[in-house]
Amino acid sequence: MGRVLVIEEDPEVRKILLEMLKRCGHDAGIAGDCVNPEVPQECDLRCCDGYAAPDLAVIAAITGRPCSGIEAALMILANWPTTKVLLISASPIQAWPASDQNRLRDLPIHSYAFLPKPFTVSDLREAVDHLIG
To answer: Which residues lie closer than 8 Å to 3 by C-beta, 6 or more apart?
Structure first.
């Protein structure tokens, strides 16, 4: 069982992800959205305050804005280098803006995986197991 932190701005999707992760046997908590409400173009990891370093962060890879899921992932890995990241998105990586595709290359190669939406509990379990065992 791993400790998983979910960062997703849609409350319904957060709720579903939490349930799916619990069904997979993981201790999951929800951080919500890490966009700074005062300065929306900045990521604000205060959303993660109170959490010890999780084994995994599941992050919505919202692209095309300054505080993308990729930026949040980079900040999380800077703060918690042993944490793995699972990026989720309904858009395939090839459809992301070039700037986000380029930033994806900044993530350490074995620190993350991508899971396209929609996915099943089995798909999620397989991706999480691949990252954290």
So the answer is: 26, 27, 28, 29, 52, 54, 55, 56
User: How many structural domains comprise the chain?
Assistant: 1
Predicted TM-score (pTM) of this structure: 0.86
Using alpha carbons, list the distances in angstroms from residue 122 to 21, 23, 60, 81, 129: 10, 10, 18, 27, 10
Residue 39 is part of which domain span?
Answer: 3-132
| Residue 127, pLDDT above cutoff 90 | yes
- List the CATH number of the domain containing 112: 3.40.50.2300
E strand residue ranges, the chain: 3-7, 27-32, 56-60, 84-89, 112-116
SS3 72: helix
